């Protein structure tokens, strides 16, 4: 009863950790029930959800459960033009325009337009190199570009050679679409979010297997850092939007980028849906500013062990 009253007022961090043990137990039961349901469906010959429908459902749930301001962007890498998904707009061919990758992501997440980007559609050199659409020029490998931001020329060269880029020639382009209505199963999803939404997704990703995210934070090349490392490693990434995202992609002052490769999406959604189902979703958290707040049990044990003050 107290927990339901708390939910009505907004959950604070202490209420979250107080419920952790209950969450773990419920998660185990939920996972067992889910496994049993899947097995039953297989035995009964039920039709499993298609990868595209599953991806669309993830997009709808993320929009609703995280109260996202813009659409999660589904990304599919393409080997040639024959793989372009239906309904995709080609900027140069269809519109007579070129976009930087940050603009393309902005158009997809804000307008809901599906795009297909090949080398001739790009208007910025970073994704052309970073997505493996052209071989890195020799002057780039010597530090060109970074030397504007890094005064030490040797360090600029080192930085350029350390940027994770996709192998040259592996893919010819990419398809971008809002996740909730994409006509394809994505290789990667990029979510523009605020810090609180990011924190909640990190909680959700950690729930099932303790997965945590390690990223290199770089103030430029966000179009590459949000795409190449997750595709190369299969791990999620947090990216700081660069100046191009701000100037041309219309990113908000409070936005970050969270990239989820296909192999991690089920793990993330397990946590998102679980916390939502037990009343500990993104909307449930409130703020508490008073001192001597009620401590969760394991706080009390630690404080007692350390000889610190106990609740009166």
Essential attributes:
alpha+beta, 6-stranded antiparallel β-sheet, 46% helix, disordered N terminus, 312 residues
Would you give an account of this structure?
Helices cover 46% and strands 10% of the residues. By secondary structure, the chain is an alpha+beta fold. It has one domain. It has a six-stranded antiparallel sheet with strand order 2-3-1-4-6-5, sandwiched between helices.
Taken in chain order, the helices and strands follow as HHHHEHHEHHHEEHHHEHEHH
Radius of gyration: 22 Å
Determine the mean pLDDT.
Answer: 88
Summing up helix and strand content along with how strands pair, one would put the structural category as alpha+beta
Largest sheet: 6 strands, antiparallel
Count of separate DSSP helical elements: 15
Strand order of the largest sheet: 2-3-1-4-6-5
- Low-confidence parts lasting 5 or more residues at pLDDT below 50? 1-8, 24-46
**How far is it from the N-terminal to the C-terminal residue, by CA?**
23 Å
Number of domains: 1
Q: Helix amount, in percent?
A: 40-55%
Shape estimate: globular
Strand content bin: 5-15%
Secondary structure tally: strands? 6
Summary?
By secondary structure, the protein is of the alpha+beta class.
Write the layout of secondary structure elements.
Elements: H1 2-9, H2 13-18, H3 20-43, H4 51-66, E1 73-78, H5 91-95, H6 101-111, E2 115-118, H7 125-130, H8 138-141, H9 153-162, E3 173-178, E4 188-193, H10 195-209, H11 222-225, H12 228-233, E5 237-239, H13 243-247, E6 256-261, H14 262-277, H15 297-305
Antiparallel strand pairs: 1-3, 1-4, 2-3, 4-6, 5-6
């Amino acid at each position: 009863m107290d927990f339901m009253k708390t939910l009505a007022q907004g959950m604070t961090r202490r209420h979250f950790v107080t419920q952790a043990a209950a969450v773990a137990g419920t998660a185990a039961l939920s996972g067992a029930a889910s496994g049993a349901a899947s097995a039953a469906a297989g035995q009964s010959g039920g039709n499993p959800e298609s990868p595209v429908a599953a991806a669309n459902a993830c997009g709808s749930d993320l929009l609703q459960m995280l109260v996202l301001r813009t659409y999660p962007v589904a990304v599919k890498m393409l080997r040639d033009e024959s793989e372009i998904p239906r309904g995709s707009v080609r900027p140069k061919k269809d519109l007579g325009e070129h976009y930087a990758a940050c603009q393309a992501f902005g158009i997809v997440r804000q307008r809901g337009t599906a795009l297909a980007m090949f080398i001739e559609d790009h208007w910025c050199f970073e994704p052309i190199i970073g997505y493996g659409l052209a071989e890195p020029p020799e002057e780039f490998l010597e530090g060109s570009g970074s030397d504007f931001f890094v005064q030490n020329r040797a360090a600029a060269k080192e930085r350029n050679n350390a940027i994770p880029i996709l192998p040259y020639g592996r893919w010819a382009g990419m398809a971008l679409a809002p996740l909730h209505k994409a006509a394809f199963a994505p290789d990667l999803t990029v979510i523009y979010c605020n810090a609180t939404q990011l924190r909640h997704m990190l909680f959700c990703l950690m729930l099932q297997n303790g997965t945590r995210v390690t990223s290199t934070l770089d103030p430029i090349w966000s179009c590459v850092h949000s795409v190449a490392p997750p595709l190369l490693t299969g791990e999620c990434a947090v990216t700081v939007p660069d100046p191009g995202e701000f100037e041309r992609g219309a990113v908000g002052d409070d936005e970050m980028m969270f990239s989820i490769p296909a192999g991690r999406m089920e793990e993330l959604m397990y946590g998102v849906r679980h916390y939502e189902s037990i009343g500990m979703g993104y909307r449930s958290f409130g703020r508490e500013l008073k001192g001597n707040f009620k401590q969760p049990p394991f706080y009390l044990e630690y404080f007692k062990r350390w000889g610190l003050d106990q609740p009166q």
